[in-house]
Amino acid sequence: MQHLINTALVVGTFFFMEGVAWFTHKYIMHGILWTWHKSHHVKHPHTLERNDLFALVFSIPSIALIVAGYEIESLSWLKFVGFGILGYGIFYFVFHDVIVHRRIKIPFKAKSPYMKRIMNAHYVHHTVHSKEGAEAFGFLYAPKKYEKGAHPKPK
Fold first, then answer.
1. Burial class (CB in 10 A: 0-12, 13-18, 19+), 122
2. Are 117 and 146 in contact (CB under 8 A)?
3. What stretches of the chain show up as alpha helix (H) in DSSP?
4. Is the dihedral of CA 14, 15, 18, 20 positive or negative?
5. pLDDT in tens, 89-147
6. Considering the entire predicted model, what is its pTM?
7. Where are the domains of the chain?
């Protein structure tokens, strides 16, 4: 039974993180910390962007929860929440940085309607290069309106 609870914590946290990512992307990245995120919306010759600092910031709660879960026996369940955040972070990196933006060059062609839809949604997001006016802030979910139509690829 405990394995089921632990698995539910990891999976539940993973999906909860989509809401956190959407909120953070819309209101923090395209808000008060646009100074970091705008590097991601403009073409540049650099391997790294100021926007990459978000990965470091977002890793802190995951690391802290995993460490606390291992170090404090009565809070051992926290490590599973931390692993859910870590899982989301890995998915985000693979989807966003590797598959969509091709920051690591691997051969990939989206075949499933789901992948095509979330990739199109992200391309639509990048048609706007300013703090205001962007849409499609999520990473795991994109409404069906992004299924059809060719959208320009970012950068």
1. buried
2. yes
3. 2-23, 34-37, 53-71, 78-92, 113-125
4. negative
5. 999 999 988 988 888 888 888 899 988 898 888 888 888 888 898 888 888 888 888 88
6. 0.87
7. 2-106
